[in-house]
TrEMBL record:
It comes from Niabella pedocola. Residues 3-155 form the L-asparaginase N-terminal domain. PROSITE patterns: ASN_GLN_ASE_3. PANTHER family: 60 KDA LYSOPHOSPHOLIPASE (PTHR11707:SF28), L-ASPARAGINASE (PTHR11707). This is Asparaginase. It holds the Pfam family Asparaginase. SUPFAM superfamilies: Glutaminase/Asparaginase (SSF53774).
Length: 162
């Protein structure tokens, strides 16, 4: 069975406006990333939203949880903004027990060329296939269980909370 990929936005999919210097959303870059990474794993992709995770609402998280619950696939990857990724992971872990769900993102937009997004996406797809049911965050080549992860804003990497 294919891996379900849900797109929610975050730095992963941001574009740079050269006129005003702001980051914004246009289209997802996921298809290009899968092609660049030479992915051969069957995937089913659905865009749920394109938002910065700092602007993600409780209703947005409910939609993500609902879509995960309704998904036929037991292996799910979610692209997500890094600032509140651990919050969404915790909500999913409380609600969904019969699937392997891996959230991932990027600290640098894909369009900048030196992004960590491609590596994180590949790691998330691999972890979704190999980890037991549960909810995880995949960043920087590591995976973390939901409820035991945070973004360290000083170092710019994810780490365990205990």
């Amino acid at each position: 069975m294919a891996i379900r990929i849900f797109i929610t936005g975050g730095t992963f999919d941001k574009e740079y406006n050269m006129l005003n210097g702001e980051l914004y959303f246009k289209d997802t870059h996921l298809h290009d990333l899968l092609e660049k990474g030479r992915n051969t794993v069957p995937v089913e992709i659905r865009t749920l939203m394109m938002v910065d995770s700092l602007e993600m609402t409780d209703e947005d998280r409910e939609l993500i949880a609902y879509q995960c619950e309704q998904s036929e696939e037991e292996q799910i990857v979610i692209t997500h903004g890094t600032d509140t990724m651990s919050v969404t992971a915790q909500l999913l872990a409380e609600r969904i027990k019969d699937k392997t769900i891996v959230l991932t993102g990027a600290m640098i937009p894909i369009k900048f060329g030196s992004s960590d997004g491609l590596f994180n996406l590949g790691s998330a797809i691999a972890f979704a296939q190999s980890l037991p049911h549960g909810v995880y965050v995949a960043m920087n080549g590591r995976y973390f269980k939901a409820g035991n992860v945070r973004k360290n804003r000083q170092t710019g990497v994810f780490e365990e909370t205990v």
